[in-house]
Amino acid sequence: MTQDPLTLYKLITLYMLDRVTFPLTKAQIGDFILGRDYTNFLTLQQVIAELIDAELIQAKSLRNRTYLEITMEGKDTLAYFGNRIGDPIKEDIAAFFADHEMDMRSESAVRADYYKSTSGEYEARLVVKEKDVTVVDITLSVPDEDTASAICANWQAKSQSVYQFLVSELF
Question: pTM for this structure?
Answer without folding.
Answer: 0.72
